[in-house]
Amino acid sequence: MKKVLxxxxxxxxxxxxxxxxxxxIGITGSVGKTSVKETIFSVLSFEYxxxxxxKSYNNELGVPLTIIGSETGxxxxxxxxxxxxxxxxxxxxxxKKYPEILVLELGADKKGDIEYLLKIIKxxxxxxxxxxxxHLHTFKDLKGVLKEKEKIITTLDKNSIAVLNYDDENVMxxxxxxxxxxxxxxxxxxxxxxxxxxxxxxxxxxxxxSQYQWECKVWGTSFKVKYKGSxxxxxxxxxxxxxxxYAALAAFAVGIAYKMNLVDISEAxxxxxxxxxxxxxxxxxxxxxxxxxxxxxxxxxxxAALEVMKMIDLxxxxxxxxxxxxxxxxxxxxxxxxxxxxxxxxxxEIDYLITVGPESKLTAEAAIEAGLAxxxxxxxxxxxxxxxxxxxxxxxxxxxxxxxxxxxRMEKIVKEVMAEPEKANELLVRxxxxxxxx
Length: 438
Description:
The protein is of the alpha/beta class. It is 37% helix and 19% strand. Helix 1 runs parallel beside helix 4.
C-alpha cells in the first residue's frame, strides 16, 4: 500500500511542480538538516512566499506531501482522498498563493533515498550540512553515507548553487565534483561566510527565589558574521550551540544567493526558534536549566553538544550534568563510538554523567577511565529510572544536557525534570500521535 501511495503522490507532486515552477532549496546531511531548514525558512520568509516541510516530512511520502501542501492521511482512507482532492484542485485551478520557494529537507537512511527524491525535485540551491557516521546499519561505513548525501550537490546543474559546510572535511572533499559555483560557511578562515565572537547569554543571573532564575533574562547565542569584508551582529534567541550557528550561517549563504541584505538576514534570524528537541533551553525544577537535545543522536551531534557544555561558564559551585543515551544504528562502529563519547565527556569538563541503555555503559566506563570520578557516573537501563534519579540529585544552578537517539525516548526525562511539565506538548518532541502511547 505504501508503494502505491508513493507512486500516486510522486505523480501529483511532479505535475504540481511543473505547473507552478517554485524554486527549490534542497537540504541534506547527517546532522543539522531540520535546523538549517528552519533558519532558511525564517530568512527567505522575510521577502518571499515560502513553504517548508512540516514535522519530519523528509522522505518519499513527506516531500510530495509538502509539495501538495497536505498532512499525511495515516491509516485513514478518507483523509488520503482529501489529499488527492487537494492535489487535483491545484492542477485544475490556479492557486495564486502557491509558494514561490519550497525549502525541502531530504532524509536518507538507506542507499537510493536521495536519488529517489531528486527524481521528483530539481533544486536551485543544494545545501549539505555535514556528513558523519549515521545509519551505518544500512550504509555500512562513512564512504557509503558520503556517496548518498553528495548527490544533493553533485547533481546540480551549472545555473544552480551549492552551499557547503567549510568546517566539514567530508563535505569539502566533494568540491571538485561540482558542476556549479558554491558558497561555503563555517568558523574556519577560508570560508566565504564566517562566524566569530561566539557568546552564550542569559546564564549569569543571580538566583531568584520567587521565580525561576533562568527566566530573568532572554537566553540565546550571539555572534558576528563576516562576508566579503562586511560584518553584521547576529542574535539567536532561546537557543545555544555551534550547531545553531552553523544553521544560521547556511541561511546567510542562501539569503546571499537571493541577493538579500546582510542586515535583513540578521533581523530575520531573530524570529528563528530552534525545532523541538534540538538544543532547546527549558527551565528545570529546583532552579536548574535543561538543554533539551532529545530529537535524535549521533557521534557528531553528541560531540557538538558536549563542546557547547564546555564553552559555558557557570557560577562557582554550580555543576554540569550530561544525561546521554544510546546512539542507535551505528552498526559495527557502535562500541567504539560510544567509548569515544566517554572521553569527550571528560574533555568537556562534565561534573556528573548519567547514561541510559546498554551501549552507553561503554560511555560511562570510558569517562571513568578518562578521569571522571566513579561516584559521579551512574548507568541505567531505561529512561524512567534515570529520570527519577536525576530528579533526586540535581541542585539549584545545575546545567543539564539531555540527549539520545529517538528510540530511547529521552524526552521523557526532560518531562520528568522540567519546571512546567504542563507545557510538554508545546516544548517537547514526540508528545502526540502514535508516540504519545509508546
